Amino acid sequence: MKSLGFPSRITEQVNQNMKLENEGFHVYYSDKIREDYLMYDLQFTRRNNSYEFNQYQLTLKNTPIPSAVIGGINTVELDYKLKVADALYDKILEVDIEGKMTKEEYDEGIKLISSANDSLKKLMEIEEGRNLAKELMYKYSPQVEYEKFFSDYHEMQSLYEHVQIFPAAGANAYSINEAYQTLKTNTIDLTEKSILNAHAISDETLAHINSSLIEGCNWMAYNTASYQLDKHDVYMFRYRHEANEFVESNVSEFDSFHVIDATYVVNLLKQIHGGKQHNTFSEEITSKQRESQFVFFGNNDALHLQLAKLGFDNKLNEAISFYESYPQTHFQLPVRERNEKEAIDYWLFFEKSDNTSNYQLTRYDATLRISPEIPNTNIIGINTGKLDKAMKQFNWSFDHHTEALVDELLKTKAGRQELKSLDNILNDINKLHHSPEGKEIAEKLMFKYWSAGPYEPNQFSLKDIQQQYEFTCTVSAKNMLPKSAVYELLKATAKETILNQTTSITQTTNVMNQKNFDYLKDQVKFTGFGEALENELKEKMQKQTPEFQILHTAKFGNDTADATLHFKKSDQSDMYFFNRYNVSLKQEQSSDVVDQTFYINKGNNITLKEAYNLMSGRSINKDLTNKEGQVYNAWMQMDFKETDASGNYKMKHYHQNYGYDLEKVLANHPIKELTNEQDKTRLIDSLNKGNKQSVTFIENGNEQKHFIEANPKFKSINVYDGNMQRVVNKQSKGEREHQGETNNVKQEGKRERQTQNEADEGPEVPKTSKNKKRKQGHTI
Questions:
Q1: Among 61, 376, 396, 622, which residue's beta carbon has the most beta carbons within 10 A?
Q2: What is the distance between the alpha carbons of residues 370 and 339, in angstroms, rounded to a whole number?
Q3: Closest Cα partner for 246 from 644, 538, 609, 726?
Q4: pTM assigned to the model
């Protein structure tokens, strides 16, 4: 049990059942991974006065709740409220409740549970909300309670629950991680289905998604604020962390982006349009969906014989006999072979014959991975050669950090040393990957040791390395080749490919560096300029001019921002760099134009939306880096009274020791959104970006719409009414008292002595563009 990853705490249950000396028994273990609820049913049988653990059943349950507002009920908020209520209900039912909850906590819990149930009942009574109420009830209510209102519990189970039996003994035993990954792979992501059903997709957007999927961009960020998803509402990314970074950089009162995995191509497009087929499917995708052809056998002895002829070890026969006893419609079996220079994985796919216990081999996939050479060098104090040797000492095919294994290792000095060595390796890999000069070597080491295992990273992809060192082919039943022939074929392909790669590296060419383009394309996208500039960027890079500019215009409400992006070619190579962008802002209420230049760094760039907020007089919160490379957090605001030598308005910085705590300031105001953790987080994120955010004030039992923005200078927020007129007396008592206190931060002493009247003037904005004289041609 420990070697498969089950926690040691369930051992006591097993021991208690064994004492009863029944012929067999079950032990249950539950877990949760993100939104997936997992139930493991461990099955024990008695044989010759001892018990055997031969198999376990895994049930994966995922009940996504789409975002909607029906009859004044927000389904996302209700989902969260029911989750809290469910946990409270379990706590209230405990025997020793007096020792765990106060009377006030108990009363508050009962009140919350009652409120959640009332909202659920109300949603159920609304015709368009009944299906959502049903999904919420299935997610949180026992079967008996659910069936008081609905009669389709088993249909809901078949839709949202997925079950598979896994062997627990012998060479083909599945660890709990392997079982979860296998079951997850065979399950269509229902969360994405529910989300996408709530939106309409234009044909142009479908074509965009389709072409992006072909190019390997499987992660999609889409605007949940728009019902009709047009092309500008959908952005496709190669890696998940890129999509998440884009979403974090584009929080505003106008947009709310969400990230989903678009790996299941046909299912994704079917889900969007209710199952209708579309001509936008390319042949490159649909060809992968064709059904495999089968080879039929009279019995499984013939299957065993065929596997032997193909060169597969007879260990597979034991696994096949397991599925004879516990039939499955289809299953997969892996065969892995390793040495220092290469690794090859075979995945064999079997399907059950109709009304028999016989299985057919439908196909097998073979993947050859050539181990990349790891140079022996020192990068940021890490010797990569020694790191390579240290990683070679471990078997990375299983997770060394499961609860059961860690408990076992901590018992001995050698085990504790092993854990320490593992942690050192993981820390060194992480440091290398975050350094520009060590990133490629780190990814080669990950590919060499972690591919197709529990340590393979899921925050980013190793696709660039895979394209160089990984080679795959599928052997169908129609043309079943021995695995030795398949290996030689892959080996020859690998040799030719690596030779061609080596040759291409040595050739001198003036063709645009594709990686350089990809890097700049992403840099432009994440700085807030979207994907519309990609073609122009590509064309201008291909011309190989020393420098070039790209123009871009963005609308923010009725304000217009004209941006000029500046690119320059390196003096030492053909690489281009995105150095800066200039913004000219024309606001609706002003006849003047504000100009400012924003410089591009390796990280923490000011996005176009943040630039607009700064130029509108508001403040933004950023993680910055000082000259020593240390990261610190600060609020930034433009000083429209002073410019630097280049004609740029200077920036005021309010560091952490200045004492501005936005969350505490917000707590001093009767803001409705603060009562919900999700809404509160979104509100703070939006204010950190410098947005003027819409909120609801609750005063004397009445709700009023207001707009607020951060004001770090006076450790407060600026409040506007529904007509965007400044409300000068919205300070709470706590804020007024706080403003009268003495602040020990010396560099801000002058600010603390300014009067409240100055604080009420609102954000500082430029009076006229004549005060600023831009000096052209002197920017470095």
A1: 396
A2: 10
A3: 609
A4: 0.38
